[in-house]
Amino acid sequence: MNYQWYPGHMTKARRMMQEDIKLVELVIELLDARAPLASRNPDIDDLGKNKARLILLNKSDLADPVQNKAWAEYFVSLGCGCIPVDSRGRGGMKEIQAAILEACRERLERDRRRGIQNRPVRAMVAGIPNVGKSTFINSLAGKACAKTGNRPGVTKGRQWIRLNKNVELLDTPGILWPKFEDQQVGLKLALLGSINDEILNMEEMAVHLLNFLKTAYPGAAAARYGCWEEDAQAQLSEIAQVRGCLVKGGALDLERAAQLLMDDFRSGKLGKITLENPPANG
Ligand code: G4P
């Protein structure tokens, strides 16, 4: 399957990200908790070098709680602050303020030593499309937060949200383009719904997902659909049968069954599932 898409947007996104990142001291990098490495663009390390970093595992409500913990420990072992969050349900928002301050501790202490007061740390959110950047910003900022006006010069055209006396957040997130060099990465992003479904072969994806579930979450598909076949293609046919996915004339509509499986996975109806394990050596 070919997962490539929208190169034009990528170029523009990169340019905007390069501009915006100059304005901040902290990058809040949003990853999808269900596939943290696949949803990560390693170029952020280069773009954001010399910046403080906080990694958030978003959509953690849909991911395996054991894996959320393991992934957070993994990123912490690499020297980054990392917490699982659920931006839609606002889970983890309380911890974030403290994590932001911790990530910027050096800068704040330096200011204190120099007697500089009231110079808030500036932060921006970055991540690939659909990872939940806008939802996160809205959850974090809430309605109570005042937006600060444009400032002449440096912040022209940008709006900042004052989170507290120490932190200001850029109200538009940085868009990172996913990395597709590895087919497995492309597949995981496709499963998460980060790629336009219209260009994908749903049936092929469904078979991949069923094969993955068989080894990593045995019983998940059987529990949802009340049927089980060892062979993934046969299992998809069973799902079509059980759910009445039929085309005119009565043949099985595997495409529709595949879409149904995908929707169930993406909405958490197959359970809390994480598609990849943290690298073993941390
Ligand atoms: P983006 O700015 O990074 O492109 O992502 P955006 O906030 O638009 O979020 C993309 C989708 O992910 C939205 O769903 C949003 O509700 C959902 N989402 C964001 N954060 C979380 C989270 O922590 N947990 C869960 N379960 N979902 C999250 P949508 O279906 O596109 O829209 P809607 O149905 O919410 O209106």
Automatic annotation (TrEMBL):
Keywords: Cytoplasm, GTP-binding, Nucleotide-binding. GO terms for cellular component: cytoplasm. The keyword Cytoplasm applies. GTP binds at residues 58-61, 130-135, 174. Transmembrane segments: none annotated. It is found in: Cytoplasm. It holds the Pfam family MMR_HSR1. Residues 10-178 form the CP-type G domain. GO terms for molecular function: GTP binding; GTPase activity. It comes from the Bacteria. SUPFAM superfamilies: P-loop containing nucleoside triphosphate hydrolases (SSF52540). One of its GO terms (biological process) is translation. The keyword GTP-binding applies. Required for a late step of 50S ribosomal subunit assembly. Has GTPase activity. Belongs to the TRAFAC class YlqF/YawG GTPase family. MTG1 subfamily. This is Ribosome biogenesis GTPase A. The gene is ylqF.
